[in-house]
Amino acid sequence: MKSTIKLHSDKVISTIATLENRIADRFPNSGLRSTCADFLNIAKKSEANIDWLIKPNLPLRIFSYLIIALGIGGIVYSISYVEFKLEDTTITNVIALSEAVFNDIILLGAAIFFLIGMESKLNRKRSLEMLNELRVTAHVIDMLQLTKDPNLINNLQASTIHSPKRTLTKFEMERYLDYSSELTSLIAKVGALYSQSLPDEVVVSAVNDIETLCTGLSRKIWQKIMILNQIQE
């Protein structure tokens, strides 16, 4: 029985839009807010991209079938033409004809294999391009939360002249880190939309890599939140 459980792109996009509004409420001019807005656009592009991927590429398929038909027709015509002109049936001529036909069949088979796989390769290329954007977004989020050190929340005198400005309160830092963790989780969900719609081995592997990356980032962020919760204000 086929499972009916699946991710819905519209629900994922709605969740990202809500998170962007939540971040804007607390950190309207932050890099996290602008990154979330960019991620929302990537998610919308991914939805349109996936809709394109799951539909058959009719122009490409028609072109491929036409080329295959022309190739088969060419071989059939060549065989009939040679047989029509053949005046003797010596072993040498039969072997030469068989070798020529065999070579043509091999070339036609290679062409058929290439044309049939062309659509899958095109879909894979488009998917990997978008998945790379998701991977980059995850690294940007990691950079944004990098300087949010809970150990310095009540120890501002430890800062040096080149230290980043630490203006967040304990509550604000906790919310910032929590939003960052939610973003990494949603990045993995957008990636899963690709493996759900295009079960290509290379695409699935790329999605798994993104999920592993996001899980690691989220774990690192939550370690900071746990340390933050142990600090007395």
Describe the largest sheet.
none
Distance between the termini: 55 Å
Query: The CATH topology of the domain at 9-55 and 121-156 and 164-229 is what?
Result: Glutathione S-transferase Yfyf (Class Pi), Chain A, domain 2
CATH architecture of the domain at 9-55 and 121-156 and 164-229: Up-down Bundle
- The share of residues in helices is over 70%
Q: Rg, please?
A: 29 Å
Helical run tally: 6
Q: Segments where pLDDT lies below 50 for 5+ residues? A: none
What structural class do the secondary elements suggest? mainly alpha
- Average pLDDT value? 80
Compressed to H and E, one letter per element, the order equals: HHHHHH
Beta-strand share of residues: under 5%
List the helices and strands and how they pair.
Elements: H1 9-26, H2 31-54, H3 58-85, H4 91-145, H5 170-197, H6 201-229
Helix pairs in contact: 1-2, 1-5, 2-4, 2-5, 3-4, 4-5, 4-6, 5-6
